[in-house]
Design goal:
- By secondary structure, this protein is an all-beta fold.
- Helix content is 0%, strand content 33%.
- The strands form two sheets. A three-stranded antiparallel beta sheet has the order 3-4-5, with no helix packed on it. A two-stranded antiparallel sheet has the order 1-2.
- The radius of gyration is 12 Å and the shape is globular.
Length: 66
Amino acid sequence: ISAVAAEEDIELPEGVSFAETAPKEVVFAAGGGLDRRVHSEPVRFSLEFADSTNKVIEVGIYGTVQ
């Protein structure tokens, strides 16, 4: 998976990485929500920090990120 904002690649801060189990791609529909043809439910994955902590990120079906 890569971080993209406004169609530009964004680098994660040093010491932060996507967990190996993270999806390779999150696909959005034109309206901003998740593309239901690709994702039937919210997408969840973890960010791993250099201090060995993790943070779960969830992209909801309407495109909201928590």
